[in-house]
Write a structure and sequence with these properties.
Chain lengths: 128, 368
């Protein structure tokens, strides 16, 4: 049984979003997602300054098995990416909600968060 | 209908992540594919390969039959237990399957064929065997466990019967020892030393458990694939198939042209292409830029398409991405691979990448 944290919001495509801190949210992939992917070997992150629409393709994670697209859960501009993943993609496996975060976005419209799943909603997706 | 090997319950109990492979419910890993890979390179791991099919061939004319059926020549098998890797070709020279043949006795040979090819192989072999009056017996009653790694042999030998242990301890590479319904072969698909053990199904869970107790780690199909890729060994269905000639799959070394009088299936078609200058080359690739090489990615040289990746992935031993690829004859020492619309540099190298725990290619130069 994988971890789903109550304080985060989720997408059915297995990304998580933190609560808003000074207009910025952190984004990563869920414990369930990393478990399904297996050992990660490469992460392609967006560039700081890139602007994404909600559900836009914004990153790629590759495991020993396959490559998976990551979709931005919300609209906004990338303000920071997790550079540590360039050399240590396994951080996503080891700590998907902590050191394995992918990037941070300055959110355009906070009401978009209301469209996302809460922890219980995501648990149903992950268990399906 | 998904098939299960006799070890299926042990895989599930051991935390195996199960996937469907060639119609079989098999473990892809037991937690970390990467760790399993390193375990085989550094100590010893075991794989359930019972989904592969053992086919026994019997009859006075088995040897001439195999000399007709296979592109490699079983005349090379003169001592009991010796093994031979070969392609089985169709009349057009395409690869029906790649397999290992063991010489057991003068009137008895054994073949081990790929799980995904088992049904068509069996039909083909039976059809070809008829004029030779060779009996073809699929041995679904046998399980098969591969124990691989630098410590594989020392950990396995004490678990065998005394007679078999003595014979197995003395086995040269690519030879097998047989006792009753057990067959221990010093073969594998990882680039490491070890055994592949064929044994009665009922005894397989006992051996699996005993190996685990001896410190041999269960490994899944995921690690099996990255290990064989590093070892530069072809994967049927990815690196070659019925539409592909062994001449373009790096398998020239398995074609026995001499004696010229030996007529094997596919010979005529291959001879016509044997010295063709437009035969594609089968090469290794080392990714110089960032990303991961994957099957079917396209390769370019100065904007001209040169070929494609036939099997690619991440090589845990090298911590780099590598691949096997089929390219046009003019391909140089470097080219680019298209990954998500971008051209990423790759170096063309000669496989294997890793054998016996040692890196065999030059991986100097930092990742860009």
């Amino acid at each position: 049984m994988s971890d789903v944290l109550d304080e985060l919001r989720y997408c059915s495509t297995h990304e998580w979003v933190s609560s808003v801190d000074k207009g910025v949210v952190s984004i990563g992939i869920t414990d369930h997602a990393q478990d399904q992917l297996g050992d990660l070997v490469f992460v392609e992150l967006p560039e700081v300054g890139q602007v994404f629409e909600a559900e836009g393709e914004c990153a790629v994670v590759e495991s020993v098995k396959a490559a998976s697209d990551i979709y931005s859960p919300v609209s906004g501009e990338v303000v920071e990416v997790n550079e540590a993943l360039m050399d240590s993609p396994e951080l996503v496996n080891d700590d998907p909600y902590g050191d394995g975060w992918l990037f941070k976005i300055r959110i355009t419209d906070e009401t978009e968060l209301d469209n996302l799943l809460d922890a219980d909603g995501y648990r149903e997706v992950a268990d399906a | 209908m998904t098939m299960k090997t006799v070890l299926n319950e042990l895989h599930r109990a051991g935390g195996g992540r199960m996937v469907s492979f060639a119609g079989w419910d098999m473990p892809v890993h037991y937690g970390s594919q990467m760790e399993e890979h390193h375990t085989v390179r550094q100590s010893a791991g075991m794989f359930d390969v019972s989904h592969m099919l053992v086919v026994d061939l019997a009859g006075e004319r088995t040897r001439p039959f195999l000399q007709y059926l296979l592109a490699n020549d079983v005349a090379r098998l003169q001592t009991e237990g010796k093994a031979l890797y070969s392609c089985m070709l169709n009349q057009q020279g395409g690869v029906i399957d790649d397999l290992i043949t063991y010489y057991l006795r003068d009137d008895a040979f054994r073949m081990v064929v790929n799980a995904g090819c088992a049904d068509k192989d069996l039909a083909w072999i039976k059809q070809q065997a008829e004029p030779f009056a060779v009996t073809v017996t699929p041995r679904r009653d046998l399980a098969m466990i591969a124990v691989q790694g630098p410590q594989a042999r020392e950990k396995t030998l004490p678990l065998l019967s005394p007679v078999l242990a003595k014979a197995a301890a003395e086995l040269p590479v690519f030879h097998a020892a047989v006792h009753d319904d057990w067959c221990v072969a010093r073969t594998g698909y990882t680039g490491e030393d070890g055994f592949e053990i064929m044994l009665p199904e009922a005894e397989a869970p006992i051996l699996w458990q005993a190996l685990a107790d001896a410190g041999v780690s269960p490994c899944g199909l995921g690690a099996r694939d990255t290990l064989r890729l590093e070892a530069g060994m072809n994967l049927y269905g990815s690196d070659m198939d019925e539409q592909c000639s062994p001449l373009e799959a790096g398998l020239n070394w398995t074609l026995a042209w001499e004696p010229e009088t030996r007529n094997f299936i596919g010979r005529k078609a291959l001879e016509a292409k044997r010295t063709a200058v437009d035969n594609k080359r089968f090469v290794g690739l080392l990714l110089e830029g960032r990303g991961v090489l994957r099957n079917h990615q396209r390769l370019f040289s100065d904007g001209v398409e040169m070929g494609e990746v036939t099997s690619g992935g991440f090589a845990p031993t090298l911590q780099r991405s590598i691949a096997l690829a089929r390219v046009l004859p003019g391909t140089g020492e470097t080219c680019t691979v298209e990954i998500r619309g971008k051209q990423v540099p790759v170096k063309v190298v000669r496989p294997p990448f890793v054998r016996k725990g040692k890196v065999c290619i030059n991986i100097e130069g930092e990742k860009s």
